[in-house]
Amino acid sequence: MSTPTTLEAPERLRAAGLRVTVQRVAVLDALRAHPHASAEAVHSSIRTTLGGVALPTVHGILGDLTGAGVVRRVSLPDAGSALYEVQDEFDNHHHLQCVECGRVEDVACAVGEAPCLHPSHDHGMRILEASVTYRAICSDCERNK
């Protein structure tokens, strides 16, 4: 899964019709470095370099980035809050989540193009997204049992 480098963040923001700000670039960089991060984790990550940024500001930026399709919001079972990752327009993946420690990893779609799952009946709706979460126990948690 590819993610933008620091130099690509401003271009991604402009292409999405968003104004380039230091805070938005910092949020993208934090998500590039730590995919599947909560808003709180992103805030903690950028607070060291942007001391004045508040958690509600990070929530707002994540909302703007998600609405513009630059970032994807990932809702997983047993996750304390929504997680975020940089959206790649050519990416079609699912998630593998450890039920013990909550670790999340990307898993490539086995077959097909997005959406790679089709319901038995769409009830007249146009499918925009299909989501699969594989729930497992990671090897570290398995060893500690």
UniProtKB/TrEMBL annotation:
User: Record keywords: Iron included?
Assistant: yes
Q: What GO terms in the biological process aspect are recorded for it?
A: negative regulation of DNA-templated transcription; regulation of secondary metabolite biosynthetic process
Task: Give one GO term, molecular function aspect.
Answer: transcription cis-regulatory region binding
**How is the cofactor bound here?**
Binds 1 Mn(2+) or Fe(2+) ion per subunit.
Listed GO cellular component terms? cytoplasm
Q: Record-annotated residues binding Fe cation?
A: E113
- Pfam families on file: FUR (PF01475)
Entry keyword set: Cytoplasm, DNA-binding, Iron, Metal-binding, Repressor, Transcription, Transcription regulation, Zinc
- Family to which this protein belongs: Belongs to the Fur family.
Q: What is this protein called?
A: Fur family ferric uptake transcriptional regulator
The record lists the organism as Microbacterium ginsengiterrae
High-level lineage = Bacteria, Bacillati, Actinomycetota, Actinomycetes, Micrococcales
